[in-house]
Design goal:
This protein is mostly helical. The chain contains ten helices and four strands. It is elongated.
């Protein structure tokens, strides 16, 4: 995103003072294709508008999918994970909870004891207490952490303390939960990538309009403008992009 904004800034700085009509460029920045349309290049404009419309449809669609899947995995966690069960695995104070284990889980107790620290008054500070995000205070991290950290495994209703395993197995509730979260995240990432592509389309339209204006300013024919320049772009890994321009002589 920062690279795209930097490129936009460089293009604006590079405008020849008093030699270029900036209005078509502003149109292209506002909406891809408007600059070309204002200069009579309607076919290019229609292509940009089709991409823009499809892009907004994709953003709305995939964000809705992401939220729907988020509601699904949150409801799934509410049914199959319990704070009382989780705490009763390592704290005797919670063994009378309605969802509590029958007895402490050896792996949970070992983890708790190995991570205990002490405050200035020599009172024990439990790592699991200090790193827990209560639903009432932080619902986003509450649901995120259930599938992110292994030490939440003791709270799942199908977990077996006698068969302790760090990594979830196919069919486990926390394995299914992780897949559901990943599916939601994938939808949100797709929406984000589409937005990035739409911003890139504005850059392409801006460059295209700029090239047309420069050629017109130099008195070139429409055919030379249409056929003289070619542009290509592609999104690369990790949010990068490649923009290329070639000139036919």
């Amino acid at each position: 995103m920062k690279r795209l904004l930097t490129l936009l800034l460089l293009l604006l700085v590079a405008l020849p003072i008093a030699a270029i009509d900036v209005k078509p460029l502003a149109y292209s920045l506002l909406m891809p294709g408007m600059g070309e349309y204002s200069l009579g290049y309607k076919t290019r404009a229609y292509a940009h508008w089709a991409v823009e419309a499809g892009g907004w449809y994709g953003v709305v669609h995939y964000r809705n999918v992401g939220f729907d899947r988020r509601y699904e995995y949150e409801a799934y966690a509410d049914v199959h994970w319990s704070e009382g069960r989780w705490r009763s695995a390592w704290s005797e104070d919670w063994l009378d909870h309605e969802d509590a284990w029958d007895e402490l889980c050896a792996s949970a107790v070992a983890f708790d004891e190995s991570h205990i620290t002490y405050d200035d008054n020599e009172n024990p500070v439990h790592y699991l207490d200090t790193h827990f995000a209560p639903y009432d205070e932080d619902p986003q991290h509450y649901y995120e952490n259930l599938g992110k950290y292994d030490w939440y495994r003791w709270g799942w209703d199908d977990y077996d303390c006698a068969d302790d395993h760090l990594n979830p197995r196919p069919g486990d509730h926390r394995y299914i939960y992780g897949k559901m979260r990943n599916s939601s995240d994938d939808a949100f990432n797709t929406a984000h990538n589409i937005l990035t592509a739409m911003l890139l389309a504005r850059v392409v339209s801006l460059v295209d309009t700029y090239i047309i204006l420069v050629r017109l300013d130099h008195g070139s024919s429409d055919q030379a403008i249409r056929d003289g320049w070619r542009m290509s772009y592609q999104i690369e890994d990790r949010g990068g992009f490649r923009l290329g321009m070639t000139r036919n002589w």
